[in-house]
Amino acid sequence: MKTSRNLLLAILLLIAYDISAQSAGPWKIKETAVGEFLIRDHGGGYNVFTIEPQTMNDAIYIGNNGVVGFGTTTPAVLNGNKIDVKGDISCEDNNAWVEVNNSLVGSNAGINFLEDGIYKGWVFYNGSYDFLTLSCDASGYGYMLNIHSSGDVTIGNTTPAAGYKLTVEGKVACREVMVQASGSWPDYVFNEEYELMNLKQLEESIEKNNHLPGIPSTAEIEEKGFSLGEMQRIFLEKIEELTLYTIEQGKQIEELQRTIEALKKENK
């Protein structure tokens, strides 16, 4: 606080002294012809600090607590901040960047969003567990969406399921799901060398296992769940097998019909 007051006092003294007349000095404080106030690196030829005429009231204010306010004479103190800005902040560059640097390893960092002094959301880095959270939980740091250092994403929890890039605690609603096939598609069922189980073998398998061959049992699904893409592949395989059974039964029915017609002719 003393440092801030001493700095302002030094600036005022320099203005009163008017070193702008010392053209040979490395620094100059001066007023331009259009009424601007400058602190100038005279040696380098740069205007380091410029205040235009008719600047807004209380454009910059340094409180006795050392907090700097922009656009306010009562800069708010929240969580030990040193700057309070009443208005928007703009960053513009070829590669504009905002950096938040923790000085303590394993500590947290983030950006809080408030509405009339009430917390509404966070962008929160958890230094203890190394993941980034996006949250709109007004009651606390709710783990709504988390991006982990591994690239895994979790929604509703903080522990990714092993081997999966996205873990969701709860239901998922969407308009469409695209599954990238990772194995052979069941067109192989229609190849001549495909061994189709006869109906008697199929019946025996169902009686023994209480589910279709190649389909996971209830116990397996309850324990491990199932892969949507793999289950779709299995379903199509069974549909194609059923189609072959139907075609074969159709041929047998036609053969029986021909036999019946022939017997009818013989018995006339």
Notes on the protein architecture:
There is one protein chain. This protein has 4 helices and 12 strands. With 268 residues, the chain is of the alpha+beta class. It has helices spanning 2-17, 199-209, 218-224, 228-266, and strands spanning 27-31, 37-41, 46-51, 60-62, 68-70, 83-85, 109-115, 118-126, 131-135, 145-148, 153-155, 166-168. The radius of gyration is 38 Å and the shape is elongated. It is 27% helix and 21% strand. Among the domains are: 106-173; 186-266, no CATH class. Strand 7 and strand 8 (118-126) form a beta hairpin.
Sketch the topology as an H/E string, one letter per element: HEEEEEEEEEEEEHHH
- Amount of beta strand: 15-25%
Q: So how many helices?
A: 4
The overall pLDDT, averaged over residues, is: 84
Question: Count of DSSP E strands?
Answer: 12
Trace the largest sheet across and list its strands.
7-8-9-10-11-12
**Distance between the amino and carboxyl termini:** 122 Å
Share of helix, binned:
25-40%
Shape verdict: elongated
Give a brief outline of the structure.
With 268 residues, the protein is of the alpha+beta class.
What keywords describe this structure?
268 residues, 4 helices, three-stranded antiparallel β-sheet, six-stranded mixed β-sheet, alpha+beta
List the helices and strands and how they pair.
Elements: H1 2-17, E1 27-31, E2 37-41, E3 46-51, E4 60-62, E5 68-70, E6 83-85, E7 109-115, E8 118-126, E9 131-135, E10 145-148, E11 153-155, E12 166-168, H2 199-209, H3 218-224, H4 228-266
Parallel strand pairs: 5-6, 11-12
Antiparallel strand pairs: 1-2, 2-3, 4-5, 7-8, 8-9, 9-10, 10-11
